[in-house]
Amino acid sequence: MQDAITPEQVERTIAFHGHQCPGLWIGIRAAELCLRELGTHRDQDPLVAVVETDMCGVDAIQVLTGCTFGKGNLIHRDYGKSAFSFYRRRDGKGLRALFRNGVMGETGPELRGLMKKIFAGQASEAEKKRAGELKEENRRKVMAATLEELFTITEAAPMPRGAKILDSLECVACGESTMESRTRRFAGQTYCIPCFEQVEQKK
């Protein structure tokens, strides 16, 4: 099993994501935990990831574990938590990792406040410089900590069932082909989700 993420893997992850940030570092370490416990991914023995956030770290998980939306082995649960569950498809072994927010210490809230001002276009040059300093400080903390210091690690919920190939149905309103599981029925007619929502608004 893999014990650590290599510098080359880190650089590949940064290149894929486009920049460095605290969320990406958390994702890198979560992927490291997955690979340590479940082994390196292979096409014939795929891993499965369930992410409870849409933050930057999900990109790291895609790059480092081989779990992607396109392959159906990356599942997003929109819970707003920095939590990641990983499974080995072969035997169902799994774990859930919840990031400990206290790892960042007092600099975490300060950096979040500065980043909000930067994204809003309201940060001064001094504040931008301070944000850069805090980013580097937090990067060192996340990358130097042990995985057990970073995450609360527990047993995962049962592994989600594998992706299925489903039929497509034509939406009665727009005529576009839509995966059967994503259609809605109304008054005996089949709608895609956007058209169904429009019908609902008119009721």
Core attributes:
203 residues, alpha+beta, 60s Ribosomal Protein L30, Chain: A, Wheat Germ Agglutinin (Isolectin 2), domain 1, two-stranded antiparallel sheet, globular
Provide structural commentary.
41% of the residues lie in helices and 18% in strands. With 203 residues, it is an alpha+beta fold. It has 2 domains: 7-154, 60s Ribosomal Protein L30, Chain: A (2-Layer Sandwich); 168-202, 2-Layer Sandwich (Wheat Germ Agglutinin (Isolectin 2), domain 1), CATH 3.30.60. The N and C termini lie far apart (56 Å). 25% of the residues are buried.
Please describe the topology of this protein.
Blueprint: H1 7-17, H2 22-38, E1 47-51, H3 57-65, E2 74-76, E3 83-88, E4 94-99, H4 107-119, H5 125-144, H6 147-150, E5 151-154, E6 168-170, E7 177-179, E8 184-186, E9 189-191, H7 193-202
Parallel strand pairs: 1-2
Antiparallel strand pairs: 1-3, 3-4, 4-5, 6-7, 8-9
Helix pairs in contact: 1-3, 2-3, 2-5, 4-5
GO molecular function, one term: zinc ion binding
Protein name: Formylmethanofuran dehydrogenase
Pfam families: FmdE, zf-dskA_traR
